[in-house]
Amino acid sequence: MGFLSFIVLLGIAYLLWRVTDQLPDLIFRLSEIQRDIAEIRRRTSGEGNSPAAPVQSAQAAQSAQAAQSAQAAQSAQAAKTAQATSSSDETS
Questions:
Q1: How far, in Å, CA of 24 to CA of 12, rounded?
Q2: Residues 6+ positions from 42 with CB-CB distance below 8 Å
Q3: What was the pLDDT predicted at 87?
């Protein structure tokens, strides 16, 4: 009976040694999973500093600038048309 207990004790010690040997890898993998989950939550909530966010804000700024320049061009064209109309009225 003593020999069987010794074998069981060796088996438990071996299993504990294997578990503790794999513990750093397990902790690293868990931290990677946590990081991925946090990134997914940031992307779905629209917040965060993901690499896509600066690109999207730059594209939004470019489209706003294009809209402003188009509006300025329309205003300039309307002013030219009004000036041409008023000058033609003065000559007649």
A1: 20
A2: 48, 49, 50
A3: 58
Predicted confidence (pLDDT) per residue in 23-38, tens digit? 999 999 999 999 999 9
Give the C-alpha distances (Å, rounded to integers) separating 43 from 7, 29, 50, 55, 75.
53, 21, 7, 14, 39
pTM of the complete model beyond 0.90: no
- Kindly report the three-state secondary structure assignment for every residue of 59-78: HHHHHHHHHHHHHHHHHHHH
d(CA 27, CA 42): 23
DSSP code string of 11-37: HHHHHHHHHHHHHHHHHHHHHHHHHHH
- Round to whole Å and give the CA distance between 88 and 65: 34
